[in-house]
Design brief:
The chain contains 15 helices and 12 strands. The chain is 41% helix and 12% strand. The protein is an alpha/beta fold and 467 residues long. It is globular and about 60 Å long. It has a single domain, classed as TIM Barrel, CATH 3.20.20. The chain starts with a helix and ends in a 21-residue tail after the last helix. Helix 6 packs parallel to helix 8 and helix 13 runs parallel beside helix 14. The strands form 3 sheets. It has a 7-stranded parallel beta sheet with strand order 1-10-9-6-4-3-2. A 3-stranded mixed beta sheet has the order 5-7-8. The structure holds ligand GOI. The site of ligand GOI has 17 residues, from helix 7.
């Protein structure tokens, strides 16, 4: 306690004196987070709740996908019980420092999938109805709303059945149709809030977009152009209609998909068109930028992927540097500087809207002494501070993924992202804080990237939050 207090005092004195606690080697002007900076830890309903058929809950597309195809999940598991948060939510809420509520994190009701899911424009109307119910019931307390989590990930499962629900293989067609409805649904929810709720509830609404940073694989002009194309195809796809001045999908997408579609003997583009009314309706529908970031990929110019597919349309071949440290997830390499580059690109491309990092985290195979996860958080937060102080990126908050180990979609329970461990063989699903939870607690308490987070023995974990 005394050590903590004196650390805080030293911090206060140093900042009063206008001095920086960042050492010159790490290039950090300050280790303090700006005043008002928000921290949290995130999770998602389907990945933790369980109770899949209780309390009047209907079947959703992930219930169906996991039950029908256990062989598509790495360990043949499902989320029928998961972390049992349905019954244990009090403990989890107690563990949350600060958070908002995302409306939709992939668990579309199965009856809507039976109508075609997000490829059917009527689903945007149902989404608006759903948003109305949430605004009405929770809007007095929720001040940061996210409509949809990672639309780019949602449409991947319309292209490749093994990636998740709904489990279709309609690449290059259904994924583009689904994106159209997803953007409409988001915009409808935003305008609904604007019209009927904003004045009294005074909250803010956005959509969470995700993408790796795409770095040119070589310095050739082809690869630099390919990297920019990758940014447009994997991120501009969603950000351009909402955040750019002119709206609509990026020009490079419209051109290339049209060209490929005609070459395939079609009479129109596989990418649906927005009418000018829709372009206008979707543009500007975010009060802040919400962004999930995990990793970086190389982009090189080249033709790869099935015909037709988003990858083929992009003309990009993506890869990793073998030198980048791995995680338990094949897609997740540890590349902290990619976060800083991405934040700068967003600022340059769409202006310096306040930005909230809604997910950032690291996977391993379990264990309480998760040094690699602490290292991940610290190194990414360091780059975040550089983006804030050196590059003047307008980042106002950060939520770590994830609060508890959970059902990792197609990876089942084989990859762990939690800062709390969950014992999945214990009927009580006991939660235990990992070393990373202690480290984040320190960071949040001091509102600074305090030194020595990796050094010294962490105290033995206590079992908490279990009644
Ligand atoms: C979050 O998305 C999400 O919001 C959370 O819910 C989730 O818990 C968290 O991630 C952690 O997972 C190398 C065939 C490259 C095609 C290896 C087979 C690409 C593509 C392995 C298998 C990667 C974070 C799927 C963003 C979806 C994982 C987006 C990261 C698919 C791969 C593949 C691979 C494959 N992405 N997601 N992928």
């Amino acid at each position: 306690m005394a050590a903590t207090a004196s650390l805080a005092l030293a911090a206060a004195l140093l900042s009063l004196a206008g001095l920086s606690r960042g050492s010159p080697q790490d290039g950090l002007p300050s280790r303090d987070f700006p005043p008002g900076f928000m921290f949290g830890a995130a999770t998602a309903a389907f990945q933790i709740e369980g109770a899949w058929n209780l309390s009047g809950k209907g079947e959703n597309i992930w219930d169906r996908w996991t039950h029908q195809h256990p062989e598509w999940v790495a360990d043949g598991s499902n989320a029928d019980v998961a972390c049992d948060s349905f019954h244990r939510f009090k403990e989890d809420v107690q563990a949350l420092v600060d958070t908002g509520v995302t409306m939709f994190h992939w668990d579309l009701p199965q009856p809507l999938q039976d109508l075609g899911g997000w490829t059917n424009p009527v689903v945007a109307d149902y989404f608006e109805d759903y948003a109305r119910i949430l605004f009405r019931h929770f809007g007095d307390r929720v001040k940061y709303w996210i409509t949809i989590n990672e639309p780019a990930s949602i449409i991947e499962s319309y292209a490749n059945s093994r990636l998740g629900a709904p489990g279709l293989d309609e690449h290059g067609v259904a994924d583009y149709q689904a994106s159209h409805t997803l953007l409409k649904a988001h915009a409808k929810a935003y305008h609904l809030y604007d019209k009927y709720f904003r004045k009294t509830q005074k909250g803010r609404v956005s959509i969470t977009l995700n993408s790796a940073w795409h770095e040119p694989r070589t310095n050739s002009q082809e690869d630099r152009q390919a990297a920019e194309r990758a940014r447009q195809f994997y991120f501009g796809y969603w950000a351009h209609p909402i955040y750019s001045k002119i709206g609509d999908y990026p020009a490079v997408m419209k051109e290339r998909i049209m060209r490929n579609s005609l070459a395939e003997g079609r009479f129109r583009s596989r990418l649906p068109e927005f009418s000018p009314q829709w372009v206008k309706f979707i543009r500007g529908t975010a009060d802040f930028f919400a962004y999930n970031h995990y990793t970086t990929r190389y982009a090189a110019s080249g033709t790869q992927g099935e015909i037709p597919s988003l990858q083929r349309d992009s003309g990009v071949i993506r890869s990793y540097d073998p030198k980048w440290p791995s995680s338990a997830s094949s897609w997740l390499k540890v590349v902290p500087w990619g976060l800083r580059k991405m934040l700068n690109w967003i600022k340059k491309e769409y202006g310096n809207l306040p930005l909230l990092i809604t997910e950032n985290g690291f996977s391993d195979h379990g264990g309480l002494h998760d040094k690699d996860r602490i290292n991940y958080f610290v190194s990414y937060l360091q780059e975040l501070l550089k983006a804030i102080y050196i590059d003047k990126c307008n980042v106002f908050g950060y939520t770590a993924w994830s609060l508890v180990d959970n059902f990792e979609w197609a990876r089942g329970y084989t990859e762990k992202f939690g800062i709390y461990q969950v014992n999945f063989t214990d009927p009580n699903r006991a939660r235990i804080p990992k070393d990373s939870a202690q480290a984040l607690r320190k960071i949040i308490k001091h509102r600074a990237l305090v030194p020595n987070l990796l050094q010294g023995e962490m105290p033995e974990p206590r079992v908490v939050l279990v009644t």
